[in-house]
Specification:
Elements (H helix, E strand, L loop, with lengths): L14 H43 L9 H15 L1 H13 L2 H5 L2 H8 L6 H4 L3
Length: 125
């Protein structure tokens, strides 16, 4: 039969600080990669918005919204990856409240990433 012995862990006394250093360095590397990747996604969102509008008007079949999903994808990419883009969209929605009527709540939550406070809820605050 095999002898069951406990493994020698005397060499692992210094591994806790090494593990925390490695986990911090991995977190920093991921943050740096996202810091480089977010502007690319925001620029791609602007590109989709610019390209989606002419595609929507040039669609040969009327009432088939080919450009609309492209524009929505661009808006989501821009708002989720750019602080300036998110502020611009909030200002545009505030300036033109009729736009809010066309976007359901789940889409606004997806685009802006937060739950909006309804006007009747503001009086209770």
């Amino acid at each position: 039969m095999l002898n069951k012995t406990t493994p020698d862990t005397s060499f692992e006394t210094n591994s806790d600080s090494s593990d925390s250093f490695q986990s911090r360095s991995v977190a920093v590397a991921k943050g740096s990669a996202m810091a480089l990747f977010r502007p690319i996604l925001a620029i791609l969102g602007v590109f989709f918005i610019v390209i989606g509008v002419p595609i929507a008007f040039l669609t040969p079949i009327p009432f088939v919204p080919i450009g609309l999903p492209i524009v929505i994808l661009g808006v989501v990419l821009l708002a989720r990856n750019s602080l300036v883009g998110r502020r611009w969209m909030k200002a545009t929605i505030a300036k033109h409240p009729r736009l809010k009527k066309f976007a359901p709540n789940w889409l606004l939550k997806l685009i802006l990433g937060e739950q909006e406070v309804k006007p009747e809820d503001e009086t209770q605050l």
